[in-house]
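hey can u check if this looks right to u? its 148 residues, i copy pasted from the old doc so theres a chance i mangled smth
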Amino acid sequence: MEIKIIKTNKKDFLDLLLLADESEDMIDTYLERGELFALYDEDGLKSICVVTQESDDTCELKNIATYEEWNGKGYGSKLIDHISSYYKGKYATMLVGTGDVPWILRFYEKNGFSISHRIKNFFTDNVDHPMFDGGIQLVDMIYLSKPL
């Protein structure tokens, strides 16, 4: 397994980025200012994530996605472990915002995050169409944090 930092042609990963954030316009707001990590194994690309600096002591995991056929195989957790080590000492805290979906919250909690705060009606106020994940409509943004 190999994790690479992608510095150019980040839009080449748009198909995978769109799995985690279905708005290309939203992806455009953070992709170039963020660091893109790509996880490969012997069979090719499996997962990606984008991390941005939000303040002197805080970074944010803006997007993490694994091709659907590889979900549940530990690739996302490997990426989180890698970026947590990579940013340790550079930032004190890593944030991630997500929809209020139980299996996603469990994934982040399993990877060392805990619920920090909620932004009410984030998805209904900021997205021009209803968004669903696993049949659950996304309404509030749940932020989780992880000490680095």
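Residues 75-87 form the longest helix (13 residues).
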